[in-house]
Amino acid sequence: MKAPLTHVLDDLVRKTAPVAVTSVLVLVALMHLSIPGFAELAPMLPVMAVYYWSVHRPELLPFWTVFLIGLVIDTLTGGTLGFNALMLLLVSAFMRPQQRHLAERGFAIHWVIFMIVVTLFEFLRWILMAAIAQTFLSLGDPALRVLLAIALYPCLSWFLLRIDQALFKPA
Amino acid sequence: MALTLTAIGLIALSEANSPFAGRMRTQVVDAFTPILAAISRPVESVSGWLGAMATASSLREENAKLRAEIETLRATRVRAAQIESENRSLRSLLGAPRMNEGRPIAARIIADTGRGFVRSFLIASGTAHGVRRGLAVVTAEGLIGRVTEVGERSARVLLLVDLNSRISVRVQRTRTRAILAGDNTSAPRLLYLPQDTKVRPGDRVVTSGHDGVLPPGIPVGIVAASDGGYLRVRPHVSWSRIEFVRVIDYEAKGLVPASPSAARQLK
Fold this sequence. Notes:
The complex is a heterodimer.
Chain A (H helix, E strand, L loop, with lengths): L4 H25 L8 H4 L3 H12 L6 H15 L5 H13 L3 H4 L4 H27 L6 H29 L3
Helix pairs in contact in A: 1-3, 1-4, 1-8, 3-5, 3-8, 4-5, 5-7, 7-8
Chain B lengths: L1 H14 L3 H37 L3 H36 L8 E10 L7 E4 L12 E3 L4 E8 L4 E5 L6 E6 L4 E6 L7 E3 L12 E4 L11 E9 L2 E6 L8 E6 L10 H4 L4
Antiparallel strand pairs in B: 1-2, 1-12, 2-5, 3-4, 3-12, 4-5, 6-7, 6-9, 7-8, 8-11, 9-10, 10-11
């Protein structure tokens, strides 16, 4: 027997939610807003989303979608093609095996791991970008981005958790 | 693993300035332009309200400051009109041609891609509106950058603070020429100044037009204090407040890089 259309749509929304939410955050990060601190935080929004979904719903954020999201960021920002794709793939690949270990842990542990991952991510990005540009880049901006991302991760995580719970609550 | 290798391959392709990478970028940006344009309007309205709320407390003070500025500008306008008229008669006496003021193309900023390690804007005007690579992009305050990639309905503006931006400039007071080099900070550096330079903080900097890319005389910024042996220039433009820009078509001919990564080759 065929499933009713509403069930099919419901299933589709659930399955595409992590990719859709991450994509929306990519677009939000490109908005030209005069909110203090937004310009610094914006490049970190997709990283924060990929981190969250890679820990909580990795099966719904497959590697190829992470790659495509990174590639879209690269093309829209005018940066080196493949650069963000590679960086987001690394975050996702690093976090997936941690899912089992983090499943039963509280938010504080998640946050500490996020601090480590986001610091490594931005540091690696800084090194790679300096190597590509063949020049020394200031560490001030990346440091500020990391601090803002760490400070605001609980808010974004809370927001993503609400979406997660709304879509995947047990019947 | 295959995706990681593909990403590394794309990085190599992009850094080799492959035409494929440039075409892919402009096509994807063109495809996203309607979405970005649709989202940016309501988002900017909300941002504007938030900004207005934040500045509400200082409105009275700002109003008084603006009134004082209007008075100064009125006097400047009268003086500018006199100088313009004098300039016109002197030019006509010498038979010198008038400076080409160019054709302005108004464009709306739809995405601020000037974060992270690249400083650029996307505007909702492209070849369909007459935008071409290399054209100067200005606001009422002065130069913000130049067009480096053009699609049919969109274009990328490389900001003068970007790491890859190199602009030929002139210090107005001393007539000294230099290169304004972006380094991803808010105040780009002045390079290749003569050793005995008399340039000092507070001097005005304009485009020199010698690069054959940008027209001469566009205001760029003010020389700021020396930092690490380099003089820096604080641009006139306040980046967060820009919504619309003018792309100026002067029909200047010159070397124009295809993309930020291609611009790097000019260094």
